């Protein structure tokens, strides 16, 4: 179950966790819009999603509270995302993304290690001049 896997991952990464509630639903249904915006941590297995679903998820996640986190099986923004004048509306401008160390046996559809990505909502990135690349990029 996801509860068992979550506890295993936390142990693997040496992390402690607070009490939590696991919920199952359709991220894109209207009933989840407000809950997503106010959630602390979301897990989404978007490995097989196409660009349209990923885009719709990005729109939902853009409304998450500061410090909200998304763990996904595919990144929603490049790990080396740089803000420039052409991508100011991209979700990468408000999130920091790191790749988590692969965990062997973490999914049922392959025995190979699968990486996960931790996205943290951080709107201060837009204000940090060090994250801006030159307009010629």
UniProtKB/TrEMBL annotation:
It comes from the Eukaryota. Its main location: nucleus. GO terms for biological process: methylation; regulation of cell cycle. GO terms for cellular component: nucleus. Residues 1-134 form the DOT1 domain. One of its GO terms (molecular function) is histone H3K79 trimethyltransferase activity. The keyword Nucleus applies. Its EC number is 2.1.1.360. It catalyses: L-lysyl(79)-[histone H3] + 3 S-adenosyl-L-methionine = N(6),N(6),N(6)-trimethyl-L-lysyl(79)-[histone H3] + 3 S-adenosyl-L-homocysteine + 3 H(+). The keyword Heme does not apply. InterPro entries: DOT1_dom, H3-K79_meTrfase, SAM-dependent_MTases_sf. Keywords: Chromatin regulator, Methyltransferase, Nucleus, S-adenosyl-L-methionine, Transferase. It is found in: Nucleus. In contrast to other lysine histone methyltransferases, it does not contain a SET domain, suggesting the existence of another mechanism for methylation of lysine residues of histones. Histone methyltransferase that specifically trimethylates histone H3 to form H3K79me3. This methylation is required for telomere silencing and for the pachytene checkpoint during the meiotic cell cycle by allowing the recruitment of RAD9 to double strand breaks. Nucleosomes are preferred as substrate compared to free histone. Belongs to the class I-like SAM-binding methyltransferase superfamily. DOT1 family. This is Histone-lysine N-methyltransferase, H3 lysine-79 specific. It comes from Anolis carolinensis (Green anole).
């Amino acid at each position: 179950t996801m509860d068992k896997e979550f506890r295993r991952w936390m142990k693997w990464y040496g992390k402690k966790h607070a009490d939590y509630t696991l919920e199952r639903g359709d991220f894109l249904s209207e009933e989840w819009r407000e809950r997503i915006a106010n959630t602390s941590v979301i897990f989404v297995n978007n490995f097989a999603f196409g660009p349209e679903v990923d885009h719709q998820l990005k729109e939902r996640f853009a409304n998450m509270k500061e410090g909200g986190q998304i763990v996904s099986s595919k990144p929603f923004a490049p790990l080396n995302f740089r803000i420039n004048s052409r991508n100011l509306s991209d979700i990468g401008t408000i999130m920091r993304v790191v790749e988590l160390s692969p965990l062997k046996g973490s999914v049922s559809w392959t025995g190979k290690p699968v990486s996960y990505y931790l996205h943290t909502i951080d709107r201060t990135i837009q204000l940090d001049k060090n994250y801006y690349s030159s307009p010629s990029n």
